[in-house]
């Protein structure tokens, strides 16, 4: 029997968490996150919305069925949070997520090829229709 050694690279040093920054006047900032436990077919999401003074406007959390990966959890979180913003009547908004993959998918000009392409395209459309830049 042959024994193979496995080398693990050292963990990257963690960056200190960013301090929350308030949005500019007249903008509502929505900080959101999706969460998934591997092996489950559902995800969780949460959001807190604040105004430029840091006053909490709304907090919400929920569960989304039929989600099988972390990217899907973040996509569904943003879709739900955008509905929340529309329900509040917020038109000048900022959505903040820690998902670089989601931010990249939303900024790409071509259609996304992921299983979440339809949701991503709907998010792009809804943001153009309901929210001002």
From TrEMBL:
<dbReference type="InterPro" id="IPR044730">
    <property type="entry name" value="RNase_H-like_dom_plant"/>
</dbReference>
<dbReference type="InterPro" id="IPR002156">
    <property type="entry name" value="RNaseH_domain"/>
</dbReference>
<dbReference type="Pfam" id="PF13456">
    <property type="entry name" value="RVT_3"/>
</dbReference>
<dbReference type="GO" id="GO:0003676">
    <property type="term" value="F:nucleic acid binding"/>
</dbReference>
<dbReference type="GO" id="GO:0004523">
    <property type="term" value="F:RNA-DNA hybrid ribonuclease activity"/>
</dbReference>
<protein>
    <recommendedName>
        <fullName>RNase H type-1 domain-containing protein</fullName>
    </recommendedName>
</protein>
<dbReference type="InterPro" id="IPR012337">
    <property type="entry name" value="RNaseH-like_sf"/>
</dbReference>
<dbReference type="InterPro" id="IPR052929">
    <property type="entry name" value="RNase_H-like_EbsB-rel"/>
</dbReference>
<feature type="region of interest" description="Disordered">
    <location>
        <begin position="1"/>
        <end position="23"/>
    </location>
</feature>
<dbReference type="InterPro" id="IPR036397">
    <property type="entry name" value="RNaseH_sf"/>
</dbReference>
<feature type="domain" description="RNase H type-1">
    <location>
        <begin position="31"/>
        <end position="125"/>
    </location>
</feature>
